């Protein structure tokens, strides 16, 4: 294996994409893993001191990681009013693709509390 240059590292597409069956919606969507900087930005944006703004956290998670179909902030808010099992499945798959395996959405939020 050869030594890597910073340019070669930065050009590498290393964020996993995963197809997720959504029986509640009658089809498949694609999510991707988050980069570390995205994860920190989402965590920090949703931080409300002693608590995490769960709705904002979930909306940001969907807008950053839902690849197909891509969604706007307003569309992500609307998705949060759909089936809880469907939204949790999306969040779990995003966490898995981001190598945060074993963490549910709520556990991940709690992990990043300041």
- Rough shape? globular
Average of per-residue pLDDT values = 89
Query: What fraction strand?
Result: 15-25%
Weakly predicted, low-confidence segments: none
Number of helices: 6
Q: Radius of gyration in whole Å, from Cα?
A: 15 Å
Give me the strand/helix succession.
HEEHEEHEHHH
The percentage helix is: 40-55%
How many individual β-strands?
Answer: 5
Strand order of the largest sheet: 1-2-5
Number of domains: 1
* Cα separation of the termini: 39 Å
Main pleated-sheet profile: 3 strands, antiparallel
SS class: alpha+beta
Descriptive account of the structure:
- This protein is of the alpha+beta class and 114 residues long.
- Helix content is 50%, strand content 17%.
- It has a three-stranded antiparallel β-sheet with strand order 1-2-5. Strands 3-4 form a two-stranded antiparallel ribbon.
- The chain is globular and about 50 Å long.
Write a concise synopsis of the structure shown.
This protein is of the alpha+beta class and 114 residues long.
How are the secondary structure elements laid out?
Elements: H1 6-11, E1 17-22, E2 27-32, H2 36-46, E3 47-48, E4 51-52, H3 54-65, E5 66-68, H4 73-79, H5 84-97, H6 105-111
Antiparallel strand pairs: 1-2, 2-5, 3-4
Features:
three-stranded antiparallel sheet, alpha+beta, 114 residues, 6 helices, two-stranded antiparallel ribbon
């Amino acid at each position: 294996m050869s030594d890597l240059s910073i340019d070669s590292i930065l050009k590498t597409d290393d964020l996993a994409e995963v197809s997720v069956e959504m029986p509640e919606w009658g089809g498949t969507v694609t999510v991707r893993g988050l980069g570390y900087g995205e994860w920190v930005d989402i965590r920090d944006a949703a931080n409300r001191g002693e608590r995490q703004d769960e709705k904002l956290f979930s909306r940001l998670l969907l807008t950053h990681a839902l690849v197909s179909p891509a969604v706007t902030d307003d569309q992500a808010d609307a998705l949060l009013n759909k089936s809880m099992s469907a939204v949790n499945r999306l969040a779990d798959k995003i966490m898995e693709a981001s190598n945060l395996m074993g963490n549910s959405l709520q556990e991940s939020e709690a992990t990043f509390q300041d």
